Amino acid sequence: MQCSVQWNGPEGMLFVTKTGSGHIIAMDGAPEGGGNNLAPRPMELLLSGAGGCSAYDVVLILKRGRHAVTQCTVDINAERATEDPKVFTKIHFHFKVTGKSLSRDAVERAVKLSHDKYCSAVAMLEKTAEFTHEVMIIEA
């Protein structure tokens, strides 16, 4: 896996990443940090990556189990350390999983497998952060 990050000049803190798969991601800082608020912060992308990784796992596990999942949303709230490096210290995932006749046990199992076994992003972040989660099941 690879990527390239390029700073877009002296008038701010906008960085553009090109991923190894050929996708482009912009990152910027807050105005008080020299940025222009044109794109997500790097730490927001890190948190989004963990949410995406876990949601991907949950959907894949449910689909492989032949559960009729039709939608998965993860709302994430995180707290950071007050001193540098301002790592994440607490991360809470709220999964909203929609499907037909989904059992709570199946969804909880998928979330647990993602967080305990499959999600690389969660595995890295749990070195500094306490993870919690909750699950809401919505009938399709």
From TrEMBL:
Pfam families: OsmC. It comes from the Bacteria. InterPro entries: KH_dom-like_a/b (IPR015946), OsmC/Ohr_fam (IPR003718), OsmC/Ohrsf (IPR036102). PANTHER family: PROTEIN YHFA (PTHR34352). This is OsmC family protein. It comes from Pelistega suis.
